[in-house]
Write a structure and sequence with these properties.
Shape: elongated
Structural class: mainly alpha
Number of strands: 0
Distance between the termini: 34 Å
Largest sheet: none
Low-confidence stretches: none
Helix content: over 70%
Mean pLDDT: 87
Order of helices and strands: HHHHHHH
């Protein structure tokens, strides 16, 4: 039952995280037209959205994903690709937070071309994650690489690292 609940939490958190990252550039674009109280309200809403909704969803997605690694013992090549893509999603998340810090300073705007680029980049990363996870492709991996990344391989290659555990 625990793996099912973890997967449910993981899928829900990733869905909220992905939706939030896709929404943020459109919120940033609203900055151009506003001044005074309306700008202040947009700034407050954008910060609330990022800090109270998108960031906790990202945290829940990553933490539940880490627990799923140990519960399901996933050690296949496609999973490494998924982790690389999730790392890209984390970078997009951090960049979005930095944009919020700078965007609401006086005289700042969010150009339309940047909104388009970031939305497309985010959608491509999310799509690649979905394709990788749902497709679970069988990629050929060099034998030495499989041996290197096998569970327990580090202890076999460097026995002195694990000698103190005995």
């Amino acid at each position: 039952m625990i793996p099912i609940l973890l997967k449910l939490l993981h899928v829900l958190a990733i869905g909220l995280w992905a939706a939030g990252l896709l929404t943020l550039p459109f919120l940033y674009a609203q900055r151009r037209q506003l001044e005074g109280k309306a700008l202040y309200r947009l700034h407050n809403f954008t910060r609330f959205f990022y800090v109270k909704l998108v960031s906790p969803a990202a945290f829940a997605a990553v933490v539940s994903g880490i627990f799923l690694i140990f519960v399901e013992a996933t050690f296949v090549p496609w999973f490494s690709v998924k982790l690389l893509l999730v790392g890209m999603m984390v970078m997009i998340h951090v960049m979005s937070g930095l944009v919020i810090l700078r965007l609401f300073e006086p005289g700042q705007t969010y150009p339309a071309n940047r909104r388009i680029i970031m939305t497309l980049l985010t959608a491509i990363v999310i799509g690649a994650i979905l394709a990788t996870v749902l497709g679970k492709p069988e990629w050929l991996v060099a034998g030495w690489l499989t041996t290197f990344f096998a569970p327990g391989a580090l202890g076999e290659m460097f026995p002195f690292l694990t000698a103190w555990l005995r």
